[in-house]
Amino acid sequence: EVQLVESGGGLVQPGGSLRLSCAASGFTFGSYDMSWVRQARGKGPEWVSAINSGGGNTYYEDSVKGRFTISRDNAKNTLYLQMNSLKPEDTAVYYCATYTVEAGIVHYGYWGQGTQVTVSS
């Protein structure tokens, strides 16, 4: 059974930090490109960051560049998102997901259940 289980979310003050984890099982994690996607209440999903299967290439949405860092440990089947200098607008449910790109179109595959991140004073 394929599972992606996110953890590490919570309530943090503006300017604070959180580290999200996504534990994978049931598939060959190291063969998949991975991404983080977030969804704020009342809004559509927003892509946040991505990393290729080997971990050598990373990508970020403009609003999180310089504040968030995506990484992975293929030996531990785990994806991470280090979030620093958090802002209230980062408040959302954060999901990890596998993805592929075909003809320039992103296709998401496996999804986790999400972890809530709330940035508030």
Oligomer: single chain
SSE class: mainly beta
Kindly state the number of beta strands: 11
Q: Unreliable runs, pLDDT <50, ≥5 residues?
A: none
Rg, Å, rounded: 14 Å
pLDDT averaged over residues: 97
Summarize the main sheet: 7 strands, mixed
The shape, in one word, is: globular
Q: Helical segment tally?
A: 0
The secondary-structure element order is: EEEEEEEEEEE
Give the amount of beta strand, in percent.
over 45%
The percent range for helix content is under 10%
The end-to-end span amounts to: 40 Å
Write a structural description.
- There is one protein chain.
- This protein is mostly beta strands and 121 residues long.
- It is built from no helices and eleven strands.
- The protein has strands spanning 3-7, 10-12, 18-25, 33-39, 46-51, 58-60, 68-73, 78-83, 92-102, 105-111, 115-119.
- The radius of gyration is 14 Å and the shape is globular.
- The termini are far apart.
Write a brief caption for the model.
The protein has 121 residues and is an all-beta fold. 0% of the residues lie in helices and 55% in strands.
Write the layout of secondary structure elements.
Blueprint lengths: L2 E5 L2 E3 L5 E8 L7 E7 L6 E6 L6 E3 L7 E6 L4 E6 L8 E11 L2 E7 L3 E5 L2
Parallel strand pairs: 2-11
Antiparallel strand pairs: 1-3, 3-8, 4-5, 4-9, 5-6, 7-8, 9-10, 9-11
Features:
121 residues; mainly beta; 0% helix; four-stranded antiparallel β-sheet
